[in-house]
Amino acid sequence: xxxxxRRFVGGASALAGFAGTRAALAQKKYSDGVTDTEIKxxxxxxxxxxxxAYGTIGKGIEAYWKMVNDQGGINGRRINxxxxxDGFSPPKTVEMVRRLVENDKVFATFQTLGTACNTAIHKFMxxxxxxxxxxxxxxxxxxxxxxxxxxxxxxxxxxxxxxIYAKHILDQHKGEKIGILWLxxxxxxxxxxxxxxxxxxxxxxxxxxxxxxxxxxPTVESQxxxxxxxxxxxxxxxxxxxxASQAIRKAADIGWKPxxxxxNVSISVDSVLKPAGFENCQGIITAAYYKDPTDPQWAxxxxxxxxxxxxDKYMPGANQSDAFYTYAYAVAAxxxxxxxxxxxxxxxxxxxxxxxxxxxxxxxxLLPGIKxxxxxxxxxxxxxxxxxxxxxxxxxLFGNVITSDAG
Length: 407
Known about the structure:
Layout: H1 10-26, E1 29-30, E2 38-45, H2 55-70, E3 78-85, H3 90-103, E4 108-110, H4 115-128, E5 132-133, H5 158-172, E6 178-183, H6 186-199, E7 207-213, H7 221-229, E8 234-237, H8 241-253, E9 259-262, H9 269-276, E10 285-288, H10 302-314, H11 323-342, E11 345-346, H12 348-355, E12 384-391, E13 394-397, E14 402-403
Parallel strand pairs: 1-11, 2-3, 2-4, 4-5, 6-7, 6-8, 8-9
Antiparallel strand pairs: 10-12, 12-13, 12-14
Helix pairs in contact: 2-11, 3-4, 5-6, 7-8, 8-9, 11-12
């Protein structure tokens, strides 16, 4: 923030200069985790355990902050990014987040991963009035500023996403039998709820098999056999990366070839599709909101060129076909933007004010036409997606960007 003041002569000028200096100093307001030189951000993610493929996100974010710090930080302050492994276990998340808030004294947590893990810390963060920002889960519960004013999501919510699939199925596979696989947690319940809403009550009877699994299950092979036996010719699959890859491979092994719809959280070419075998992935449909690194159409776009240079310098040797790295870059850029907007008023209250006042904000690596919008009553930053189909060894976008007005 700049200060405009008239210039006076003599003693009045000196006095005005002194007052201006005091005013500038007074503008620096800090909460825990902030000094003149540092901003502490906390994070938890599954670097181990059944969802360890998501650990790439935390590594990508950590590298992003290294780049930001090398460039002088944010308004002169370096980012101290403290990240802990919670193994995708909610009790462990509670332990690690308490440590971040009470011992490390972080300014905010950022991109804590997993619906169940974030649910476990939801009330704690809001009771402590510590921002729980841009959580790495699309459960619809994160858009509830009235009850939980310190928590906000980032990606499109699962209800909106699954409704998009349902509407496409009704358009392209009218009257066909549908089988659903879903993870038995709040994210899975959101996906199924949104999918059924998208179908509408008159079409709910099309779902002939609705099968869940646990994140600790070693495989989902028995569930895939059950789905095939139901006679379903359309498959809606909600699974974490390891189980999604298993589902694709098992369906191929038993000769089940349904129209396949796969949720966005498990579309990494490197972590999911390649292990399943590209030959088994042809024609799979999903919805996207950020650029896939395997899609050649982005190769010469400025933000993608910038991302690739970042990867070459800060993550040498990392697999650049892993879409979780582009996701990490985009969400970290969002966090950087709101911190910039805070200026020197780095209080948790002002941070939430900036988070809740984004208007058509453009972020690197989001698909063209997709921008961030929030308000005091709208905690769903991204509400647009575009369908894409897997062809050859990459995703190919089709259709128009679809925007929802409801989270």
